[in-house]
Specification:
Layout: H1 2-15, H2 17-27, H3 33-40, H4 44-72, H5 74-93, H6 98-126, H7 132-162, H8 166-170, H9 177-183, H10 186-195, H11 203-208, H12 212-223, H13 225-241, H14 259-274, H15 277-282, H16 284-290, H17 295-319, H18 325-348, E1 351-352, H19 356-362, H20 368-371, H21 382-393, H22 395-409, E2 410-411, H23 414-429, H24 432-443, H25 446-477, H26 479-501, H27 510-517
Antiparallel strand pairs: 1-2
Length: 520
């Protein structure tokens, strides 16, 4: 048994590297936004598009990746995703203009969408029931490790670029810091592609294709001979019951018998994004700059966000099969609501006022006569202060110097903001982050699993795109306080939904859950 568990764990770890690439590819943009906005002369919505474009194509990939994996296999789709990650890393790092940059990021989005759907599906299909939650959560763990690695990599490249070291100047880390931030992803993409040659095909996919002997061999390695024989019978029985049905279509996931599980899946998919997680992950340095701590410190605090994410995701993995999915969701959503309300309060209580001494200490090449019209005026919101900067300096200069002027003018408790952000990330990482994907792998019956998870993933990714697209506009238009208040209200509504409707799924086989949740 230990040998079987070791094999299934090893396979799950390799496949979950796709999660690392997804997390790295998605969040590395957080360190890039402050460089590409002035370099390409972007508006706030264009900046949102630069960030969200990856998620847009990830959304499209989710529409067909499940069905494609049913046709050519889970492993083959993941190999294709690895290639797309590498192409995207090189293309975006070398992009000469905004259009090329967006196209390269969109190519990476196809890999993100495929791996986000197929990796947890594959792991669920090769995992023993008693450790399925832990193994599926490895994918989410790798996502957060990838996010943390991107934050740390961005910080190191920024500091190395400022170090003045000869090797850093030779590599032009200072001049092209954002290009290096994007390009380093090429190495893990190559490692992932090679690693996938050392994992077996999904046994459930092999059974679907009629390769019973190969499936039996794979299952024996994964769960042992006795359990393999029983799982073969269970899967074959499930598939045989569906033989009289036509080929799975999108209409089938809307069948009344699946209404309950579809409602849960879609609601969790939306809830995971509208609480603002990807606004925090993809714009972390920008958010911390809004609290006035400066660029270097904002990149360092983004590293703390990544580390918090990793630690609490590990805790979720440790407790998801012990405490269950439902208690983690309830505890996490309670924490998310409280953290967002704290952030809304913290930014709402901030004031902004410039004086000549503060501006002089910044040593920035701006005409003091222009800034003089801002001296001595106390602004009660970040929106009014930013609008005043644009009116005085013009749009282009305002984009370049907004962060340092906020740093000089703001009166806020940055520790409160940091505590709120870390509390939010911790609450998310122990609940919605891993639990949603585990429940996706458990809720839907085998016959429609690929299509249903693709559909729920499509909804999740679509809302992620919208959050990323509008976040810079929200900060500029309605301000930080109101933006975080909206996220907190969504989390409170989600808490009520989970309390009333979401069932517990721990310690049950996929076939048992199908009997329990699918209304025949």
């Amino acid at each position: 048994m230990k040998k079987n568990r070791f094999f299934s764990t090893r396979v799950a770890i390799i496949v979950a590297v796709g999660g690392f690439l997804m997390g790295f590819d998605a969040s590395v943009i957080s360190g890039v936004v402050r460089f590409i906005e002035p370099e390409f002369g972007l508006t706030k919505l264009q900046l949102g598009w630069a960030v969200g474009s990856l998620t847009l194509t990830a959304t499209l990939a989710m529409l067909f990746s499940g069905a494609l994996s049913d046709r050519i296999g889970r492993r083959a789709v993941l190999k294709l995703a690895a290639v797309l990650f590498g192409v995207s890393a090189i293309g975006s790092a070398l992009a000469p203009d905004f259009f090329t940059f967006v196209i390269a990021r969109m190519i990476g989005g196809l890999g993100v969408g495929a791996s986000l759907i197929i990796a947890p599906m594959y792991i669920a299909e090769i995992s023993p029931a008693k450790i399925r939650g832990k193994l599926v959560s490895l994918n989410q763990l790798n996502i957060v490790v990838g996010i943390s690695a991107a934050f740390f990599s961005n910080y190191l490249i920024l500091r190395w670029g400022q170090s003045g070291a000869a090797w850093a100047e030779t590599l032009m880390l200072g001049e092209h810091a954002w290009r290096w931030m994007l390009g380093v992803e090429t190495l893990p993409a190559i490692i992932y592609f090679i690693g996938l040659f050392f994992v077996p095909a999904s046994p459930r996919w092999q059974i679907m294709k009629g390769n019973i002997k190969e499936a039996s061999t794979t299952l024996t390695k994964l769960v042992g001979s006795d359990a393999a024989e029983q799982q073969l019978k269970d899967v074959q029985k499930s598939l045989k019951a569906d033989e009289h049905r036509e080929k799975v279509s999108i209409k089938e996931i809307f069948h009344p018998s699946l209404r309950y599980v579809l409602m849960i899946g879609v609601t969790l998919a939306i809830l995971q994004q509208i609480t603002g997680i990807n606004a925090v992950f993809f714009y972390a340095p920008m958010i911390f700059e809004q609290s006035g701590i400066g660029t270097d410190a904002s990149f360092m605090q983004a590293v703390l966000v990544g580390l918090t994410n990793v630690v609490f995701t590990v805790l979720a993995i440790l407790f998801i099969d012990r405490l269950g999915r439902r208690p983690l969701l309830i505890a996490g959503l309670t924490g998310i609501t409280a953290a967002m309300m704290l952030l809304a309060y913290g930014f709402n209580s901030a004031t902004y006022q410039l004086d000549p001494e503060q501006v002089e200490a910044l040593e920035i090449p701006l005409d003091e006569e222009l800034l003089g019209s801002l001296y001595g005026i106390t602004y009660q919101s970040d929106v009014h202060f930013k609008q005043a900067i644009v009116q005085v300096l013009g749009q282009e200069a305002a984009v370049e110097y907004e962060a340092v002027l906020i740093q000089a003018a703001i009166d806020v408790k940055p520790g409160l903001i940091l505590f709120g952000i870390l509390g939010f990330v911790a609450s998310f990482a122990i609940s919605l982050g891993p639990v949603m994907w585990v429940m996706f792998s458990e809720l839907f019956p085998l016959r429609v699993k690929g299509l249903a998870i693709s559909f729920a993933g499509f909804i999740n990714s679509a809302f992620s795109f919208l959050v990323q697209l509008v976040f810079p506009w929200e900060l500029a238009t309605i301000g930080s306080s109101f933006t975080f208040l909206i996220y907190g209200l969504f989390a409170a509504a989600g808490l009520i939904f989970v309390w009333k409707f979401v069932p517990e799924t721990k310690n049950k086989t996929l076939e048992e859950l199908e009997v329990q949740l699918v209304r025949k």
